[in-house]
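Thread: Newbie trying to understand structure tokens

Hi all, I'm a second-year student working on a class project, and my supervisor (Dr. K.) asked me to get a predicted structure for one chain before our next meeting. I've only ever worked with sequences, so writing a 3D structure as a token string is new to me. If someone could post the tokens and maybe explain what I'm looking at, I'd be very grateful. Here's the chain:
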Amino acid sequence: MSEWFINQNRTSFQKRFFPESTRSMWSDWRWQLRHRFRNPAALARVLRLSDSERTALDHVTNGPPWAITPYYAALMNPDDPSHPLRRTLVPTLAENIPTPGESSDPLDETTATVAPNLIRRHEDRVVLLATDLCAGYCRYCTRSRLVGNGVRTDWQPALAYIATHPEIRDVLISGGDPLLLATRRLERLLTSLRAIPHVELIRIGSRMPLLVPMRITRKLVAMLKRHHPLGLSLHATHPDELTPEAGQALERLADAGILLAGQTVLLAGINDDLETLRTLMRGLVRHRVRPYYLYQCDPISGSGHFRVPVSRGLILMEGLVGHLSGYAVPRYVIDAPGGGGKIPIASATLVGREGNDLLIRNHLGRICRYPDPELRGEPPC
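---
Reply by user tm_fold:
Sure, no problem. This is what the structure looks like when written as tokens:
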């Protein structure tokens, strides 16, 4: 989608549906949140809803709540229910179709919860759920069971647990979306974590730079910069999200020295083709976001219509490796159900041995040799 088209579409959308708004209003993230589409009649003003969408919006029973900012709605094709951005946030009846193996908590986060709003699977890392609210609710969200209640989160038990476990060095602040918090409240949380001597790295998981890029204000970035080393894990779904506004938000974060890592869920009919993935990964790198994970979609209840066969995912990865700069190639992983953690998935590149040579297959299918004489008389590492 060209920058000209994006600007024209956004401007015409604003004039048509929010004629009373000024440019400064539209560019205010709080205005965007206040004017989210949250009922079917309002959304039907801007999108020609399909029967499946309309019925699902009236009776959301098997997934998270829904909400769409004016900014993000302006990026959607109003006449096409299959438009990628539209499918990520607008419910459909497919969510009510169960698929074997699905669960409301496929990663078994409940069992891994060691304190209220604190998940721990690894010795040195924890996930702190700072809020249950998002600017928009992804229809494939692995925390569908938790989000959207609007209950104020008490962080003190989680902070106390982290403070008494010196082996914890890395804290991922997640939710919900932590950047939905007021800047002062988020700063209090970051300050509390930075006061714990053994916490080395703090990361924030967010979609706000793409859903509501206006949130990335200079004031917010200046505050975040005071808490280095700080990283942001960006959930990016489709290249249409990389608008000029989103680019400016990511540039501000990168200029502030914040480590930016891109995480993408592989989704059927949304980003499961080579051209889309290549364009997305190149776009992320162009904005100084390092593609990190390509996730196989978690088997959350009602997500069967989003999930891509792993065999297809492997073919797509083969189309990325060797055709993109190494900086632009993510790792393809499955976050194993039952709390098994993130497991990298890769095609077989190790063919075998021939004498002292290791035989390996490259991205073009060519068999290459690597000198690798087997050690004799020495124990393995």
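A couple of things are worth pointing out once you decode it. The chain has a mean pLDDT of 92. The chain has three domains: 3-96, 113-344, 348-381. Feel free to ask follow-ups in this thread.
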